[in-house]
Design goal:
Pfam families: ILV_EDD_C, ILVD_EDD_N. With 580 residues, the protein is α/β, with parallel strands linked by helices. Among the domains are: 27 residues, no CATH class; 157 residues, Glucose Oxidase, domain 1 (3-Layer(bba) Sandwich). Helix content is 34%, strand content 12%. It contains 21 helices and 14 strands. Helix 5 runs parallel beside helix 13, helix 9 crosses helix 12 and helix 12 packs antiparallel against helix 13. The protein is globular, with a radius of gyration of 24 Å. It starts with 10 loop residues before the first helix and ends in a 26-residue tail after the last helix. The chain binds FE2/S2 (inorganic) cluster.
């Protein structure tokens, strides 16, 4: 017996021969849409984050055009719509500040419109989680298409990576080993094609996470933005979303607990960004999957980093694609028995394992063999202790091994302005064994949780040849950055976490083996300091109005994914009442 066809949401708008149907159809017809388009075709939204202010997504009109071709070929009715586009490179105070705002835009745009399924055009860091969060809260059939990474950067005859080279060269300028002119000349060579950052930064990581979660077609993560196969993938995704609507393959059938466990393991294997910890938690919260910070330890621990990409390693996303891309990595995990849930369903209707079990691999330098990994255990470390009662994270693949167990005296910066004012002071009382502590850069403190956790080292130490130090903050770190950097300390300083009361000269112990982050002061002394701190707090007038007020009042801490407390959960695709 054949299944009855899925009832389309869009029929609530276009499917009636009455006053309401007239109104919904008539205004759409001003775009030259013939009557037969409204006769039961699945209406597919193309949710577009195109913007010239989001350079990583500036090629998305072309991408959308190829998605549209696929939708039409499969018998769907494509409708493209814009949503807030938060580009990492331009947006202040941070793109993270508006991730949740964009997700609201996505959720309400989908639910309020005659949309049966949606293609999410994602690229720059925050656009991927924002669109997945918004779509997850509606829970319609959805497939993500990433914009793809830029071609390898080129400078003075060698490959340079987005972001990573900026950190490297700016430190060299400060250390006096290169000139300012040499530094500036790398600018044009770093970003020489359309696309997202070509390192395993947050955009590439989130594209890999989307593929591992099963919400994209295979190979979505790594095909370069300007490679014609990116546009083939967009076309095929357009075809597939129409089928997904007919199969009622909603996000909740893909975004299961099993899918998130696969993604966590994948993150370790690719040497992915710490930002994924926050974004996966937020996406899971929207779809109703329980995900704890400690899952990153229990599920990820012991997984080698196989992908030799900057910032942890040597190569770039273009090389990664030519070497086999994410399917080759997932196959390695599966063959080692380290893919937790090979049977997890993916957007093409096949299991994750079916998609990757025959995936070829072409370059063992870029995608290492299981026995010769880049890092033996690349899982993100979750740290806890009296300095981070609700946790903190560190990415060992980007850190210096000898600093993963370290005890040092704190050099404390109260905020980013304080850091900028004093870091270059030749009289700063700091040595290579000190621990740099930066406060008030968390979700509420900055606000927007700035990517400054990898704060630059004191120039006087750089000049001595020091290349890494332990750094601790409530900030995030760009996925393109590196160093022995403890991030996401929760609760943040602004919310009264113990980080707020660390003092100059305090001893701090970091032990990544045991996951310990300890401030060496007594419980009584710590309680005393916190009480004094709380008594001295005053409201910041800048938090008193506008979107910032909403943000500061409702953003949750890093261990909870920095979503707004009132946005957590799946509110479904119920059709709102009409107003005619
Ligand atoms: Fe957009 Fe890196 S700045 S992907």
């Amino acid at each position: 017996m054949s299944k009855s066809p899925v009832k389309l949401r869009s029929a609530e708008w276009f499917g009636t021969a009455d006053k309401n149907g007239f109104m919904y159809r008539s205004w759409m017809k001003n775009q030259g849409i013939p009557d037969h388009e409204f006769q039961g075709k699945p209406v597919i939204g193309i949710c577009n984050t195109w913007s010239e202010l989001t350079p990583c997504n500036a090629h998305f009109r072309k991408l959308a055009e190829h998605v549209r071709r696929g939708i039409i070929e499969a018998g769907g009715f494509p409708v493209e719509f814009p949503v807030f586009s938060n580009g990492e490179s331009n947006l202040r105070p941070t793109a993270m500040f508006t991730r949740n705002l964009a997700s609201i835009d996505v959720e309400e745009s989908i639910r309020g419109n005659p949309i049966d399924g949606v293609v999410l055009l994602v690229g720059c860091d925050k656009t991927t989680p924002a669109l997945l969060m918004g779509a997850a809260s509606v829970d319609v059939p959805a497939i993500a298409v990433s914009g793809g990474p830029m071609l390898n950067g080129k400078h003075q005859g060698r490959d340079i990576g987005s972001g990573t080279v900026v950190w490297q060269l700016s430190e060299q300028v400060k250390a006096g080993t290169i000139t300012l002119h040499e530094f500036m000349s790398a600018e044009a060579g770093m970003s020489r094609s359309a696309g997202t950052c070509n390192t395993m930064g947050t955009a590439s990581t989130m594209a890999c996470m989307a593929e591992a979660l099963g919400v994209t077609l295979p190979h979505n993560a790594a095909i370069p933005a300007v490679d014609s196969r990116r546009y083939v993938l967009a076309h095929m995704s357009g075809i597939r979303i129409v089928e997904m609507v007919r199969e009622d393959l909603r996000l909740s059938k893909l975004l299961t607990r099993q899918a998130f466990e696969n993604a966590i393991r994948t993150n370790a294997a690719i040497g992915g960004s710490t930002n994924a910890v926050i974004h996966l938690k937020a996406i899971a919260g929207r779809i109703g999957v329980e995900l704890a910070l400690d899952d990153w330890t229990t599920i990820g621990q012991g997984t080698p980093t196989l992908v030799d990409l900057m910032p942890s390693g040597r190569f770039l996303m273009e090389d990664f694609y030519y070497a086999g891309g994410l399917p080759a990595v997932l196959r390695r995990l599966g063959e080692a028995g380290r893919l937790p849930h090979p049977d997890a369903l993916t957007a093409n209707g096949q299991s994750l394992w079916d998609n990757v079990k025959d995936a070829p691999s072409y370059n063992p330098e870029v995608i290492r063999d299981w026995d010769t990994p880049l890092v033996p255990d690349g899982s993100i470390r979750v740290l806890r202790g009296n300095l981070a009662p609700r946790g903190a994270v560190l990415k060992p693949s980007a850190a210096t091994a000898r600093l993963l167990r370290h005890r040092g005296r704190a050099v404390v910066f109260e905020n980013l302005d304080d850091y900028k004012a004093r870091i270059a002071d030749p009289d700063l009382d700091v040595s290579a064994d000190s621990i740099l502590v930066l406060k008030n850069c968390g979700p509420r403190g900055y606000p927007g949780m700035a990517e400054v956790g990898n704060m630059g080292l004191p120039p006087k130490l750089l000049a001595q040849g020091v290349t890494d130090m332990v750094r601790i903050s409530d900030a995030r770190m760009s996925g393109t950055a590196y160093g022995t950097v403890v991030l996401h300390v929760a609760p943040e300083a602004r919310a009264g976490g113990p980080l707020a009361v660390v003092r100059e000269g305090d001893w701090i112990e970091l032990d990544c083996d045991t996951g310990r982050l300890h401030l060496e002061v007594s419980d009584a002394e710590l309680a005393d300091r916190l009480a004094t701190w709380a008594a001295g707090q005053q409201a910041d007038p800048a938090d008193g109005s506008g979107y910032r007020k909403l943000y500061v009042e409702h953003v949750m801490q890093a261990d909870e994914g920095c979503d707004f407390d009132f946005l957590v959960g799946r509110r479904g695709a119920g059709v709102p009442r009409h107003s005619h």
